[in-house]
Amino acid sequence: MYTTKDMKKQGIKALKYLQDIDRDDVLEAVGLQERSPWGTAFGSIGIFALGCLVGAGIGLAFAPKAGTEFRNDLGERIRKKADELKPVVEEYTGRSQMPVT
């Protein structure tokens, strides 16, 4: 039979166990994992950037210019932007990645 003292010890033991449980333990028990807020932010920024590019393309497609003139202008703009972005791309690709151990 349980005495009051035994029940108190069991209650304190259970309380200590519950105090040690954190969010990761609960997520693991349910079979989920925590999402990084940065991953969600970068995904949202990527979708926004894609929407900007599509919107710009549609806007240019309906511009009041002839087809060949539009294509020439578009090609020149893309080449100029590519030349402007080359130093930025080279800077990021030149950086070393963190070593995986």
**Approximately how much helix is present in the residues?**
over 70%
Look at the helices and sheets and give the structural class: mainly alpha
Shape: rod-shaped
Radius of gyration over alpha carbons?
A: 29 Å
Total count of helical runs of at least 4 residues:
4
Number of strands: 0
Strand content: under 5%
Mean pLDDT: 77
Low-confidence stretches: none
Q: State the order of secondary-structure elements, H for helix, E for strand.
A: HHHH
How is the main sheet built? none
- The end-to-end span amounts to 55 Å
Describe the structure.
The structure is a single chain. The chain is an all-alpha fold and 101 residues long. Helices cover 76% and strands 0% of the residues. The protein has a domain of 29 residues. The longest helix is centred in the C-terminal third of the chain and has 28 residues. It is rod-shaped and about 95 Å long. It starts with a helix and ends in a 7-residue tail after the last helix. The relative contact order is 0.04.
In short:
The chain is mainly α and 101 residues long.
Write the layout of secondary structure elements.
Layout (H helix, E strand, L loop, with lengths): L3 H16 L3 H8 L6 H25 L5 H28 L7
Key words describing this protein structure:
mainly alpha; single chain; 4 helices; 101 residues
